[in-house]
Amino acid sequence: MKNSVRDVIDRYVDHEYPAELDDKFRSWLTDADNAEEKESELSRLWDSTDSASVPDMEQSMERMRRLTGITDRRTLRSMRRRLKMWRASAAVAVLAVAAATMFIPMRPADTSQPDLLQAYIPKAEMHTLTLPDGTVAMLNANSTLLYPQQFNGSERCVYLTGEANFKVNPDPEHPFIVKTADFQVTALGTEFNVAAYPEEDEITATLLSGKVKVEFDNLSRSEILAPSRQLVYSRSSRKAMTRDADLSDVTAWQRGEIVMRGMTPDEIFTRLARKYPYTFIYSPHSLKSDKFTLTFAADAELSEVMTIITKVMGDITFRIEADRCYVNTAH
User: Fold this and answer.
1) Separation between Cα atoms, residue 222 and residue 166, nearest integer Å
2) Rounded to 10 degrees, what is the CA torsion of 17, 21, 22, 25?
3) Could you tell me which of 61, 58, 15 has the C-alpha nearest to residue 181?
């Protein structure tokens, strides 16, 4: 499976982002989630720049050091220990808050700007929250939403990694904007769904009601969506297409249902790993590239789901041990 931590860090190093996204990247990098992978990836990058003479990368790495205060591996390990202790004590303080979400205040580089909050949804969970302007956001598993304590200025901007549905509180004078790593969606007053997981090549924006503008390809191109229309953008090819959407399929995750249409086995197991609290162990290269369509009810147990999948695919076996699901090619 793809390393999403490496994907996020590499994207940051390879591009010059505005200060707003620098703040968001800093919050993600310095929280305690996946700390060991982050330390490993930073070590990999720093090792590569010790002997490299690439000005752009050196510049990006220096910006990362300045933002985070992480100057070497020892600093990162010390910071990780402090963060783990902080999270342990903070867990007691937030028991009154929905258990699916951790809200982490982030101190911006410019103290004149409002603090940002981070809503992180673990795997196998969903959560609904109301933003400061009254907009209701429902977040899917393995999703992170960054938003300010208060919306100021001419726009209402949030930053999403993962998938969320937004029911936007109308305010024509202050457009509501959802930003992802590769595109952004602007709405005046509407309901729409955005799916932008870093491990998936395709990003989708689907309009349920109202009207939205979707910008992509480094914001150089845009499309206006009508209700029940969906824009699909490929990160790898930088191609986009619009099509009619099955709104029942798009919103199935909000009801806890699993709908997978035209997916490869690797894509199916990646999707299931978000739905269920299990780690899937398999070799993507040993799986066929055939595509399958599968749907499961909200209360389906993983064992039931995997039994059906093995029958449909015909050439795999599985076993579940503790919190792991092992998938092997049948001989």
Assistant:
1) 20
2) -120
3) 15
**What's the DSSP call for residue 227?**
T
The answer to whether residues 60 and 13 touch, using CB atoms and an 8 Å cutoff, is: yes
The residue count of the chain comes to 331
Tokens of 200: 């998936």
CB 227 within 8 A of CB 208: yes
- Residue 329: the pLDDT is 87
Give the CA distances from residue 312 to residues 105, 271, 281, 309, in Å, rounded to whole numbers and listed in that order: 46, 17, 19, 5
Summarised one tens digit per residue, pLDDT across range 87-141 is 333 332 232 233 233 333 333 333 344 578 889 999 999 999 999 999 999 999 9
Token pair of 160 as six digits: 């999403």
Give CA–CA dist 279/276, Å, rounded: 8
* Residues 310/287, Cβ–Cβ less than 8 Å: no
Where the chain has pLDDT below 70, the residues are: 1-114, 331
As a whole number of angstroms, the longest Cα–Cα distance in the chain is 63
Tokens for 21, please give them. 């996204």
| Amino acid letter, residue 75 | T
Q: Which of 230, 245, 195, 236 is nearest to 217 (CA)?
A: 236
